[in-house]
Design a protein that fits this description.
The protein has helices at 15-19, 40-53, 55-63, 72-82, 85-88, 117-135, 148-157, 176-183, 199-211, 213-218, 229-246, 264-274, 291-298, 325-332, 337-351, 362-366, 378-392, 398-408, 429-436, 463-472; strands at 3-5, 30-32, 96-100, 103-107, 139-144, 163-170, 190-196, 221-222, 254-259, 279-286, 300-302, 353-355, 371-375, 417-421, 457-460. It is of the alpha/beta class and 475 residues long. The protein has a domain at 96-113 and 229-436: Rossmann fold. The strands form 4 sheets. A 6-stranded mixed β-sheet has the order 3-4-14-9-10-13, with helices on both faces. A 5-stranded parallel β-sheet has the order 8-5-6-7-15, sandwiched between helices. Helix 2 runs antiparallel to helix 3 (55-63), helix 3 (55-63) packs across helix 4 and helix 9 packs across helix 20 (463-472). The protein binds pyridoxal-5'-phosphate.
Length: 475
């Protein structure tokens, strides 16, 4: 399998080369040259594999369709090492439960950091360690986080050979639980850097360091952001697992509703659907930051800056420029790299927007690709959390609540609608208390983490200081 750039660059690459790379040389994102097709016989085979051998074996089957530069036995072992009950809490790994009628919830948030990002990041950690060892190379991951991504990356890379993590976060601005999750890690290869500033300052520092090409090359600086193809690929697996749990035979269809921000999670659903998994609708759920809902309703994609991005009670979806959206638009425009490039470079890059309303292709988003969308606000979130708890005794987090709210508006009788649960309520305790008047349940292994010793350095918002710190700790 070869991978191409959405913006038409002529060079095609293999999986392990894009695993460690970020964007393509022309600023595009990598996608496979074709989506491997799952026919009825293959789907039945996958049904058996999942039922008899479990999630790790299913993951291997899907991944091996896209990865041909890691020996089969090694890839199998990497999947088996990643998707264990020990790490994800259950044998099913991603159990599907019924809420009411056709409405289901697929639990993706029982990994080490209680958010769905663990599903992909845990695999990435093992893939990085494997590939770096094979090449005799090292990697220093530099990132900025306001919560979920940073902790998922740290828990995936902790103790991994050949990898160090330098994670910046805004000092004093994460919830006590999130701070405890990240800062309690005592692994030598994990470095927490609390910046005296806001999240944007952290991002600016990461950009400044990455733009110093000499420093970047000398210290092997890399990232683990959501445009990484391996992360997206790992996410494709749980669409299969959700489908297989919700159906008995291959002639049944299901729909998914996905709480969305950077469009990474739902883009994996798009890939699964393109492979032939019988998905009817893919419903994008946004919060008050609704640029994606606006696109699927109107055909206009208008990004917003930090000043026009609201801080909401589903903070991991506070995104007004969805980094993975380009992948879907590439398919929508018939994989025309030149057209795609003009939409994203001249459109989004220069004008902050593009519009496809008048283009016949726009109808394909709903028709050919099954996309629908909806939006949920703080009031909707509170009402949904309360209703779900009172009627079904099921406590859901704020992001999942956005999904459930929107899913109810898109239900079609007879078709299971699976909402992806992207985090557990304990991570967003304040809003749960506002909705329910009580504290959320806390998984036993997190009792008392706020009191653990913390490993973090506080620094002023200065890229040079971060560079000095990295240099000092790469000796
Ligand atoms: C990251 C995240 C999202 C958004 O996922 P995307 O892949 O960016 O669309 C939703 N909910 C939670 C809890 C997250 O951490």
């Amino acid at each position: 399998m070869l991978y191409l750039s959405t913006r038409g660059h002529s060079e095609q690459k293999r999986f392990c080369d894009i695993l460690l790379a970020g964007l393509a040389p022309d600023g595009g994102l990598y996608l496979p040259v074709t989506y491997p097709q799952i026919d009825d016989a293959k789907l039945s085979e996958l049904r058996n594999v999942y039922a008899q051998q479990g999630y790790a074996a299913l993951a291997y089957e899907i991944l091996s369709l896209y990865i041909d530069d890691i020996p089969a036995a090694d890839l199998k072992a990497l999947c088996a090492k990643t998707y264990t009950k020990d790490v994800f809490g259950t044998d099913a790994i991603v159990p599907v439960r019924t809420l009411d009628g056709d409405l289901r919830i697929e639990a993706l948030s029982n990994g080490p950091t209680l958010a769905f990002k663990d599903m992909a990041m845990q695999l990435l950690g093992n893939l990085f360690e494997y590939e770096l060892a094979r090449r005799g190379e090292e990697l220093n991951i530099l990132g900025a986080t306001s919560g979920d991504t940073g902790s998922a990356a740290e828990y995936a890379m902790r103790g991994k050979k050949g990898v160090r993590v330098f994670m910046t976060s805004p000092h004093g601005r994460m919830s006590p639980f999130q701070q405890a999750q990240m800062f309690s890690l005592q692994d030598e290869n994990i470095h927490n850097i609390a910046i005296e500033g806001v999240f944007d300052d952290c991002q600016d520092i990461v950009k400044a360091v990455s733009n110093d090409h000499a420093f970047k090359a000398q210290y092997k600086i890399g990232t683990v952001n959501s445009i990484n193809w391996a992360r997206l690929l790992a996410q494709v697996v749980y669409y299969f697992a959700g489908y297989l749990q919700a159906t008995q035979s291959n002639d049944q269809k299901v729909s998914f509703t996905v709480p969305s921000g950077n469009f990474g999670n739902i883009c994996a659903g798009h890939v699964a659907r393109q492979m032939g998994l019988p998905i009817d609708k893919l419903v994008v759920a946004t919060n008050e930051n609704d640029v994606l809902d606006e696109f699927f309703r109107t055909g206009v994609y208008q990004v917003r800056g930090a000043a026009n991005t609201y801080e909401t009670s589903s903070p991991s979806m506070d995104i007004s420029k969805a980094s993975n959206f380009e992948r879907f638009v590439f398919d929508l425009v018939g994989r025309d790299g030149a057209r795609l490039k003009s939409l994203f470079v001249d459109g989004v890059g220069k004008a902050g927007q593009f519009g496809l309303s008048g283009d016949p292709l726009f109808k394909d988003a709903a028709g050919k690709y099954g996309f629908e969308s909806g939006k949920s606000t703080h009031a909707d979130r509170l009402a949904t959390i309360k209703d779900t708890f009172e009627r079904f005794g099921d406590m859901i987090d704020t992001h999942t609540a956005d999904g459930v709210k929107v899913a109810r508006e898109h239900l079609q009788a007879g078709t299971p609608m699976i909402v992806l649960e992207t985090a557990l309520p304990i991570k967003f305790a304040a809003t749960i208390e506002e909705a329910l008047g009580r504290e959320p349940d806390r998984p036993a292994k997190f009792n008392g983490i706020e009191a653990l010793p913390k490993r973090v350095v506080v620094m002023s918002s200065d890229a040079q200081k971060v560079k000095d710190y990295i240099a000092e700790h790469c000796k």
